[in-house]
Amino acid sequence: MDMFLSVDIGGTSIKLGMVDDEGYIRRRASFSTRTLNSQFTANQILYFIKNLDILGVGLAVPGPVSPEGELLMLPNVDSAMLEVISRIQNELEAFPVALVNDANAAALGELWRGAGEGAQDLIFITLGTGVGAGVVQAGKLVVGAHGAGGEVGHLTMEYGKDAPLCGCGKRGCLERYASATGLVSLYKQEAEELHEEIIALDNESDSKSVFEAAEKGSRAAQNAITRAMQYLGRALAQLSAAMDPEVYVIGGGMSAGFEDFIPYLEKAYTENALKAATNTPIKQAVLGNDAGMIGAAYFVKTALGK
Hints:
By secondary structure, the chain is of the alpha/beta class. The chain has two domains: 3-107 and 289-303, Nucleotidyltransferase, domain 5, CATH 3.30.420; 120-285, ATPase, nucleotide binding domain (Nucleotidyltransferase, domain 5, 2-Layer Sandwich), CATH 3.30.420.40. The chain contains nine helices and ten strands. It has helices spanning 38-48, 80-91, 102-113, 175-178, 180-194, 207-215, 219-243, 258-272, 291-303; strands spanning 3-9, 13-20, 25-32, 56-61, 97-101, 122-127, 131-137, 140-141, 247-251, 282-284. A five-stranded mixed beta sheet has the order 3-2-1-4-5. The longest helix is centred in the C-terminal third of the chain and has 25 residues, at 219-243. It starts with a strand and ends with a helix.
C-alpha cells in the first residue's frame, strides 16, 4: 500500500498525517507552533516518519502557492513559519515535496473522501476569520496564472468609499460580510440600528454567540445572518455563472452553524443563480480538521501519477 506524508501548517499548530492511497489517515500527530523553532519542528517531523516508507510529502500552507509550486506569501502568520517550511523542505529533500494552499488542500480532501466524493467539479468555501476557497475542475485545482485562482473571499460585493476595508486593501470584499468576523460586524450594526443590547462576545469572530442569539429571538442576530448569507448566496451564484460546479461544500469554523444558515443561503443562491444552476447542492463539509491532511496527500499522490 502506498503511503504519503501530509504536513498541514496552521497559525497555531502543525498537523501530521500518514495517509494511505485510499485516503485514510493511518497515523497522526500534532504540535503547537506558538513557540516556533525550525530545527525542533523539522526534527519532530523526521521522528514521525522514522522507519516508515513514504512516496511523497504534501505540504499544506496558509498562503498562495504559484503554479510552479512556490510559496508566494504567508499573510497573518508568524514570519518564523517561513524558516520552518524551508527547513521541512530541506530535511525532506529525499522525497518529492509538493506545496499546496491549505484551502485548496481542504477542497481536495472533501473531493476525495468528503462531502464532494464522486464529483469532479467542486467549489469549497471555508468560513472562518476570513473566507477562503478551493476550486476544483475536472478533478484538478484551479490556481490561475499567478496563484490567485479561487480567492473567492475577495470578490467585491459592495463598491464605494463606505464599503468596509478588507485586509487585502480593497473595499467591500465578500469576507467582510460572510466570514465569522463579518457576521459579528453585521450583527453589531443591526443591534445599533434596532437599539438592541449587544450580547457578550468572546472575540470579534465569535459567530457561535450570534447564532445562539438568533435562536433566542434576537432580531439583530437574525438579520445579520440573513444579510451575511445574502452576500454569500450572491457570490455563489456568480461563481456558478463562471464555473458551474457540481457541488458547493461549506467548511471552516462557522460551518458549525450550517443548519442555522443554510435556508437563507439556499434562498439567496437560487434567487440569483442562472436557472440551469439553481439546483446545485450546497453541502456541509464532513472531514473537519482532517480535510487539509487528506487533501495534501491527494495532491502529492496525483502529482506523482499514483
